[in-house]
Design goal:
Elements lengths: L2 H12 L5 H10 L4 E5 L4 E7 H14 L6 E3 L5 E7 L2 H4 L6 E3 L4 E5 L9 E4 L10 H35 L4
Helix pairs in contact: 3-5
Length: about 170
């Protein structure tokens, strides 16, 4: 990110903070380089398990020049996709958690590496968010790909086992 992109992203993020200066202070002085920001004002966050999140992000980046911001936690266990405010209240689905009105999320300073949560796609400062319908379609395509890969792996394993049995090496 360039200096002006980072500044725009920071301004966009702190615009939801009850005290923007306190948020900036946290980013500067917190040893982890993170701040807590309220969801549900400009954006909600849909949180996917990492094993589904990464393939979903792959699908999105093939469909869009730039999806909305995406966070990943340490260990890549979860990914958070920034979507329009109010999405979490209307989201119907399983295996997806949401951070909407009344919740807070840990947000790193854009463009800096932290020891925990990090930006996979930082905010652009213009308020670009991922369309929830497009995210849902990308999730379905990613899940189908995971199921297909799992089925193919099982078939290869069974074929290998059958070959060993035919040779009497079971």
């Amino acid at each position: 990110m360039t200096g002006s992109e980072t500044k725009s992203a920071v301004e966009w993020l702190v615009s939801v903070a009850p005290d923007p200066e306190s948020c900036r202070w946290e980013w500067e002085r917190n040893p982890l380089g993170v701040a807590l920001l309220p969801a549900g004002r400009l954006w909600d966050v849909l949180i996917l398990p990492g094993e589904l999140g990464y393939p979903t992000l792959d699908v999105l980046t093939r469909c869009l020049d730039r999806p909305g911001p995406v966070l990943a936690d340490f260990g890549d266990e979860r990914m958070g996709f920034f979507v329009p405010a109010g999405t979490v209240a209307r989201w119907v689905g399983t295996g997806v958690r949401g951070a909407g009105r009344g919740t807070w999320i840990v947000v790193p300073y854009p463009g800096r590496t932290t020891g925990g949560v990090r930006w996979l796609i930082p905010p652009d400062g213009a308020g670009t968010l991922t369309d929830p319908a497009l995210l849902e379609l990308a999730m379905h395509e990613a899940a189908a790909g995971l199921a297909r890969d799992g089925k193919e792996a099982t078939e290869r394993k069974e074929a290998k086992k059958a070959t060993r049995s035919d040779k009497g090496t079971d």
